[in-house]
Amino acid sequence: MSADRTPVTVVPLDVIVDPENEETVEAGLRALQAGAGASVVVVHVRTRVVTPRALHLLLRAKERAAAAGGILCVAAPGPAARRVFHLTGLSRVLRVAATVAGAVRRNSGAGCGHPGGTPARSRALPAPRRPGPPRPARSLGRLTRPDRTRRP
Question: Which residues cross the membrane (predicted)?
Answer without folding.
Answer: none
